[in-house]
Design goal:
Blueprint (H helix, E strand, L loop, with lengths): L1 H37 L3 H14 L4 H13 L3 H14 L4 H13 L3 H12 L7 H14 L3 H14 L4 H13 L3 H13 L5 H14 L2 H13 L5 H29 L15 H7 L11 E8 L2 H14 L5 E6 L2 E9 L2 H12 L6 E4 L1
Antiparallel strand pairs: 1-3, 1-4, 2-3
Helix pairs in contact: 1-2, 2-3, 3-4, 3-5, 4-5, 5-6, 5-7, 6-7, 7-8, 8-9, 9-10, 10-11, 11-12, 11-13, 12-13
Length: about 375
């Protein structure tokens, strides 16, 4: 009896050791595969995940990982087979079903994607519902259903307010629909959650411009221009938006002046038209400003004649000196002054604001 017990114990111990050895082997290849996958070395990742799948064919996470790696190299048929195998092993492995829905979306099989992702959302224990809502929205967008696209993006951000990609897409969708107030609320949510960047500030400035909140626009653009991480492209966009703000502010000033003007007062004659080509020739930097770093942009116009008229008014009515017009990419910008330091330019900018002349400092 004792011998029989010892024999059973030895056989059981050997079986346990073999099982542990097998688990250690597939886990080893799985971990190697994950390291390669994170490093975007998909060839190595696939090789290691495949080895792990042969050693542990009943481990759904191995098949799921193999499916993800195949999806990255656009081996869509193999990817689908791997995800389906994971679900065959474990029907409750919802992560594989989510990835299958994403795969169908990438293959432009939008109806299948929507159907699969809806099944994902039925699993109340699944912790990545925000991703299911996000790709569900993307599938609807691809089908031209913008209402459901926005609705699902809204739900994705509700389930995970820190899901920045969905938040940014939602804000852009609101902008495209002309719902600038809703777009502003989304950007404010990102900023309040600490997700601040030059891109978000520039987007916020763009929305505030459409809402007519010019002071807020300039506040956000100031952060964009002062951030050392701002790319040259974003910096250029920020300056262009500042120019648009100047035009809008000047239009408001003109409207107020026209409103206050007495009906009997005659309107001053329009300045004579000046050919734009001629203005481009004469709109060079003031020689006196060479070697100086700072000027104040006090206007931006789509018309050469309007820019010249504004220049003449600044010189005649306010007595400003060193006012020049420079054409760039079809926009005629009006610059004032030539200052050695930013502080000097800032003092003059403050003085100009006191007489309802708005602008910003340009560092050349």
């Amino acid at each position: 009896m004792i011998k029989l017990f010892l024999l059973f114990f030895l056989l059981f111990s050997c079986a346990v050791k073999e099982e542990e050895k097998g688990k250690a082997q597939w886990q080893y290849y799985y971990d190697l595969g994950m390291s390669s996958y994170m490093a975007k070395n998909y060839s190595e990742a696939i090789a290691n995940f495949f080895r792990a799948s042969q050693l542990a064919p009943n481990e759904p996470k191995v098949w799921n990982a193999l499916g993800l790696a195949y999806m990255e190299v656009q081996e869509h048929q193999k990817s689908e087979t791997a995800f389906l195998r994971a679900l065959q092993v474990d029907k409750a492995y919802t992560e594989a079903k989510l990835n299958l829905g994403v795969l169908y979306y990438r293959q432009r099989q939008y109806e299948r994607s929507i159907s699969t992702l809806r099944e994902v959302l039925e699993d109340e224990a699944f912790p990545q519902k925000h991703m299911a809502f996000y790709y569900l929205g993307k599938a609807y967008q691809a089908m031209g259903n913008i209402k459901e696209y926005i609705n699902n993006l809204r739900r994705a951000t509700a389930y995970n307010p820190m899901f920045a990609d969905a938040q940014l897409e939602l804000a852009q969708a609101y902008e495209n629909e002309g719902d600038y107030a809703s777009a502003k609320n989304v950007y404010l949510s990102l900023i309040n959650n600490g997700l601040v960047s030059p891109t978000i500030d520039l987007s916020m400035a763009r929305v505030e411009y459409m809402l007519g909140n010019y002071a807020s626009v300039k506040s956000h653009l100031k952060r964009v221009l002062e951030d050392k991480q701002t790319s040259p492209q974003l910096r250029s966009q920020a300056y262009d938006l500042l120019s648009q703000v100047l035009i809008a502010e000047q239009a408001r000033v003109v409207q107020r002046v026209e409103k206050d003007r007495q009906p009997q007062q005659e309107k001053p004659p329009e300045p004579p038209a000046i050919p734009e080509a001629s203005l481009r020739e004469t709109a060079q930097e003031n020689p006196q400003s060479r070697g100086r770093a700072y000027r104040i942009q006090v206007g931006a116009f789509s018309s050469a004649n309007l820019a010249r008229a504004w220049k003449d008014r600044l010189e005649k009515e306010l007595g400003l000196k060193e006012v020049t017009v420079v054409e760039a990419s079809g926009i005629f910008k009006v610059f004032y002054g030539a200052f050695n330091t930013k502080e000097e330019a800032q003092r003059e900018l403050t003085r100009l604001k006191g007489v309802n002349i708005y602008g910003f400092i340009v560092n050349e």
